[in-house]
Design goal:
Largest sheet: 7 strands, parallel
Strand order of the largest sheet: 3-2-1-4-5-6-15
Helix content: 40-55%
Number of domains: 2
Number of helices: 15
Length: about 350
């Protein structure tokens, strides 16, 4: 039995995961829809491969018979997660993915009882979405057990988004924002709030976005009120405040198709030199009912490098038997210090 199945292996992040897996002594079965791309990768890395579409149930189940765990890296996960999840439940195979989509986290959470019955762990978000922010949430909760409000923010310095991430963002054009209020996820205008954050390394302006922690941090910490932010130029934030007037247009398929066409003309993602120089900053704040705050920040390596390393790290834990059946978040399963196991990570309270 091979060690794990990597579906979406020829994507930008998938190839980073291959290199990280080999560096850590793992040999995944490469998988995806396009046989030619898989064959080229398999020859390059001397690894086995299986080409099949997720709607080919027989081929999917045959592939899962060969492994204990799937690392699913083919987005948009709103379209690809469900068939893989259902096959993993049926075949008794642990499910991991690198999504950042709130709807996918919530769907996985809804399968908690089914996963327990199947004896498998379902853990979405094993990459930058959401390992460092999830660990920040639990770290702060541990400092303030009576926390009622959580805000999380992140910003990349010197990085660039990948083709796959951009395509997922394009799929969500016009959908607005989200936050968690009194335990429930509620819709809000995208960029409904903004603030300036002063890190030791750099000052960043951040605006509210519907990041995955709106879902996951609640399951990890139980904190009922959660907002998430990302770094943007303040000029972009000022324009974003008017976006709600145009959401009806942004949801039109021809607009999304145009955006996807423009994305296809861009590089697949940041090159190795750029990833090596870049880094990411994560900020978190909790407050209790009295309004007393505790804040902390984390510095990590570039987001795509972190996604590859964190995903492989978690995959190794599963293969080593560190498994908790049911729906789990990364920090919920492996603790607030999970992120500290990764390269080039520092954390401070301030």
């Amino acid at each position: 039995m091979s060690e794990f199945l990597l579906y979406g292996a020829y994507g930008y992040t998938g190839q980073l995961i291959i290199e990280e897996a080999l560096a850590q002594g793992l040999k995944p079965i490469l998988a995806g829809r396009q046989a030619a791309k898989l064959q080229a990768l398999a020859e390059q890395y001397q690894l086995p491969y299986l080409a099949f579409a997720l709607d080919d149930q027989a081929a999917l189940e045959a592939a899962l018979k060969q492994v204990k765990v799937v690392l699913h890296a083919a987005g948009p996960f709103s379209q690809t997660a469900e068939p893989m999840l259902q096959a993993c439940l049926k075949m008794g195979v642990h499910y991991l993915d690198i999504t950042g989509e709130i709807a996918v986290f919530e769907r996985c959470a809804s399968l908690d009882a089914a996963a327990r019955q199947a004896g498998i762990m379902v853990m979405p978000g094993t990459g930058f979405d959401v390992v460092p922010t999830d660990c920040m949430a639990l770290f702060l909760k541990n400092q303030m057990p009576d926390a009622q409000n959580l805000r999380l923010a992140f910003g990349g310095v010197g990085g660039q988004i990948s083709h796959g991430t951009a395509m997922t963002m394009a799929q969500g054009l016009g959908e607005g924002g989200a936050m968690r209020k009194n335990g429930k996820i509620v819709k809000v205008p995208l960029g409904h709030a903004g603030m300036q954050l002063d890190f030791p390394q750099k000052s960043l302006f951040v605006m509210a976005i519907p990041w995955g922690d709106v879902s996951t941090a609640f399951y990890t910490t139980g904190i009922p009120n959660i907002e998430t932010f990302t770094a943007v130029p303040q000029s972009s934030y000022n324009m974003m405040r008017w976006q709600s007037l145009f959401n009806w247009l942004l949801r039109k398929e021809w607009v999304r198709r145009y955006v996807r066409k423009r994305i296809d003309q861009r590089p697949a993602g940041p090159d190795k030199v750029r990833r090596k120089k870049a880094y990411t900053l994560v900020w978190g704040e909790v407050k209790n009912a009295k309004g007393e705050p505790i804040r902390a920040w984390i510095k990590t390596e570039e987001a795509y490098n972190l996604t590859a390393e964190a995903s492989v790290n978690i995959t190794k834990k599963v293969l080593d038997g560190q498994v908790y059946p049911g729906f789990k978040t990364p920090a919920g399963a492996y603790g607030a210090d999970l992120v500290m196991e990764l390269r080039s990570v520092s954390r401070s309270i301030f």
